[in-house]
Amino acid sequence: MRLSPIGCAAVTTTLLLATAACGGREEAGTGATTAAGQCSGQQTTGITDTSIKLGGIYPLSGPASAYGDIPKGIKAYFDYVNAEKGGIGGRKVEFVVRDDGYQPPKAVEEARRLVEQEQVFALFQTLGTPSTTATWDYANQRKVPQIFVATGASKWGTDTAHPWTIGWQPNYVSEARVYAQYLKQERPDAKVAVLYQNDDFGKDLFEGFKRAIDGSGITVAAEQSYEVSDPSVDPQMRNLAESGADVFLNVTTPKFGSQALAADARNRTWNPLHIVNNVSSSITVLKPVGFENVQGVVSAAYYKDPNDPQWKNDPEMMLYFEKMRQYAPGANPAVPYFAFGWAVAASFHKAMEAVKCPTREGLRDAVRSLDNVQVGMLLPGVTMTTGADDGFPIESMQLMRFKGERWELFGEVIDTRKEFGPLTN
Q1: Is 141 exposed, middle or buried (0-12, 13-18, 19+ CB in 10 A)?
Q2: Residue 220 belongs to some domain of the structure
Q3: In terms of domains, do 22 and 101 share one?
Q4: Least confidently predicted of 1-5, 16-20, 283-287, 341-345
Q5: Which domain holds residue 360?
Q6: How far is CA 145 from CA 33, 55, 142, 275, 302, in A?
Q7: Is the domain of 267 the same as that of 405?
Q8: Does 31 score more than 70 pLDDT?
Q9: pTM of the predicted structure, to 2 decimals
Q10: Domain membership flag for residue 103
Q11: How far is CA 65 from CA 101, 170, 413, in A?
Q12: DSSP state of 35
């Protein structure tokens, strides 16, 4: 899978054509190896004719360590492409992963290490709203692409001062709109109790939900927040139960998602409809609670669940299971976070194929001009689209309900762009 013919050629025999198309070769300002055929004056740090170096920052330890499975799925995809496809456009991908423990100051430290010492081409996947918020000023000042960050904060798409940073997954406001629409149809007089993480992530989704129900018969009966340093959310859950709300909106990261689900299951006097946000909907979050205790829980999805039998004969899912077993033999492919990693790595592959010149600027421009790009691991009907005034690659989701030992999709894919209009500042 080579770069588009309109891109810069990467071999000596076509250098003259590349020079005409992209403006000639110049050394990157940082002194990194120059990729053949770069656009004049643009950065080629971390990319050569035969390699691309990416850096990811994840909470491999700490309260959000469940997300540590994501880079394993990414690495398996890149190992597969490197070994069997010759890399991306003839360039082998090196993926360097750093642990920030879900601590923003540590994320800044690791971003500096990746950019200044490892000299990566791009920061690919900074996980978490707090960590990405802490690092995006640095990335944009250094003009380093911060691509497909693993957080759905709406500001990645509405902010215009950070053109080098872009999200990937549906933003939290759009996700909140999906839940609000569901309640308007199914429980138009719902009284909702909300638990949310007291940071940009939790507030973004909660505020989006409140705006989406404005003017309807749905009300917020109670709200409780928690800190990522809290040992438990049991006190908050007791307070919410006293509200008598008939819907519980669970806006948490995995550790606290499990705690909230378990607390809800233990309470025999409160039986609300439980909606858990997508980032805590993984089987790894639900299983410790006991599948019998999470029946009927509702969430929303945008990529294929490896536990859903409807994808058993799906070509992309079959490829995923085969290559995960081959390139990540110690990992269980049924874990959705591995599938998330595979999906976002495949999305980066598509973005690189759209790059006209193999430079940091070229990647920045490519991810902001995606046109209905299809990725095999995304749900049918979910594609990637961006534009000059649209920094949200994915804005479609489908509701799902937990039944038996897996999620079951229901309803149609909801394109929040069409249903609710674009998000703006």
Answers
A1: exposed
A2: yes
A3: yes
A4: 16-20
A5: 12-167+311-394
A6: 17, 11, 9, 34, 24
A7: yes
A8: no
A9: 0.86
A10: yes
A11: 7, 21, 30
A12: P
